[in-house]
Amino acid sequence: MDLNNIKGIGNKTIELLNKLNIYTTDDLINYYPYRYNVYKPVDLNLCNETLNVTINATIESTPKIFYLKKNLNRLSFKALTTNLLINVVIFNRAFMYRNLDVGKDITLVGKYNKQKNTFVASEIKLSCITETKIEAVYHIIKGLKNNVLSSYINNALSLETKYLDYIPEYYLRKYNFLTKKSSLEIIHNPKDVDSLKQAKIRLKYEEFFIFMLKINYLKNRNNKILGIRKEYDEASLHEFINNLPFQLTIDQNNAVSECLLDLRSNKKMNRLVQGDVGSGKTIVATISMYANYLSGYQSAFMVPTEILAKQHYESIKKLMENYKVNVDILIGSQKKSEQNNIKRRLENGEIDILIGTHALISEDVIFKNLGLVITDEQHRFGVNQRGTLQNKGISPDIIYMSATPIPRTYALTIYQDMDTSIIKTKPNGRKDIATYVKKENELKSVLLSILDEIKKGHQVYVVAPSILEDETRNLHDVNNLKISFDKAFNNKVKIDVLHGKIKAHEKEEIMKRFLSGDTKILIATTVIEVGVDVKNATTIVIFNAEMFGLATLHQLRGRVGRNDLQSYCYLISDSDADRLKVLEKSNDGFYISEQDFLMRREGDLFGTRQSGDMAFKIADLKNDFKILLQAKSDSAEFLNNIDNLEEKYIKLLESVTNVD
Ligand code: ADP
Ligand code: MG
Q1: What is the pLDDT of residues 23-32, one digit of tens each?
Q2: How far apart, in whole angstroms, are the C-alpha atoms of residue 382 and residue 369?
Q3: Pocket mutation for ligand 1, best pick of 241, 242, 246, 252 (most atoms within 8 Å of C-beta)
Q4: Residues with beta carbon inside 6 Å of ligand 1?
Q5: Beta-ladder partners of 309
Q6: pLDDT at 391
Q7: Where are the alpha helices (DSSP H) in 160-189?
Q8: What is the pTM assigned to this prediction?
């Protein structure tokens, strides 16, 4: 239903709601509170708590207003609460003056000082709360008050007649779940803690059930689909492998064999190649694409950032130089005419390997005979995007590559629809990256170490969380760091700045200068997080390290230590040292992701971004893992035992396989 069906919602409000990703009444109903305020009125005479108490009271004197400063005023009045006459003070509520008549019953929340007999209220409610009251608190934005949003939601709830429920009858009864309707009513207007808990569990289960249904469906589908049996000349492939600039590690060799076996079989390949940062996944992809080329098919290689696309393009083109393979790149920042040219040549079969960002999945990109699709840094793409690229060919083989920033137990669940190859060991001669957590006031020693490395001819990354000065949060930003570094090194060291807002062609120039060794220090935001490969860089300094999840820090650290030189990582932070020290101790991505999972704060697990896979509304991966496992086996059981799926499930599952 459209939002303007709801009382009080006009175009202005719709704009505000859109900012919260609310576009329909259904979105509104499913916009869950992130926490609750619990009001339980107490008797001040009997109360030991003095902080954050809720009391009912009657106003006994006309309030006085004091204007203290421009943005500061104070209301004070006397009130009677269970035969105690107290002084009430509340700041910045002058606007409530008219509503505070003598004799009125109100509820106050705040702090009571017994000696002064003064109640400093932080909240004032114009009605009496008799029993316990639980109030939903939503993430809001400027212009939209919590209680207003709440009234919209309740309005939408009362208008809605049909609630889409994805939990099948059988499980509803089995677990004695609340109905969808009442759980939604409770989640927005809880009456007591017990039923709130039940409503939450039910909604979490449903969310996981839907998610696992998609995964299980993909798995079943993949098992049934026949792929293309690829045939290529083994001798030519071996020649290619033997002429690589390095020898493959044992794990790389195994991964390559597994991919090739899948290519040659008539089963459709659906394989996840997992390997820590720097373990050398790209070459596995490259060899597979070459085999696919030898079989006469096109390959698509999709990566999450343009920088990465360019880098892969350059290195793969170089490796293919002597083999008549046409490698090309398609990214959003190219000129339309250039893009059209590439699309035309792609459709004619003049391009063998196309590398790109999700520009590759736009509708007008048509392959002549797509045989292999590879996505790099898979965790950046969502379940719904998984199906998109493969629809472009007649059942192409699929390889996903991921640096596993997720714990093993969890990976088993969400990637269970795939076969996996694991690359554990790093290429020979790689040393662990020496990692140090440093305080801001130890920066000088870090600068000296940087200078040492630069003198040895090596290069340095410096990472900061923001682009511009951020006074409110007091974070380092790349522009100011450039100024400080220039000053510290007397302008004698060549430094560049890189971030997402810089124009594409400039970015390219900056990366080129760094790659050529011309620039010694690259100060960047996390745009360099994934995949960037500059072998000569041996040091990375990360400012405000406390702002990042461990998995992100590990990925960032993986930018150095990419050849046999000893590399260094400095995590600069004045807080959160215990968590950061996990990185001092370990270079093992699997271990770090488990630790991250255990220690993370809300929303931290996958760095600052939530990948499409992980965007749950109410369920929480860490705390609700048991519910996830239950939903996993139930959804598999459900799919296996049903012959005709209801319409709503068909619609749901179509979203997994159709173009977004
Ligand atoms: P990731 O797994 O993080 O994507 P890359 O594929 O980018 O890692 O490889 C990291 C670096 O290691 C690259 O510079 C690559 O050329 C190099 N490399 C990969 N395999 C080997 C190997 N067997 N021996 C030596 N260097 C290798
Ligand atoms: Mg990579």
Answers
A1: 999 889 999 9
A2: 25
A3: 246
A4: 246-249, 252, 275, 277-283, 427, 531, 533, 535, 562
A5: none
A6: 63
A7: 169-174, 180-188
A8: 0.65
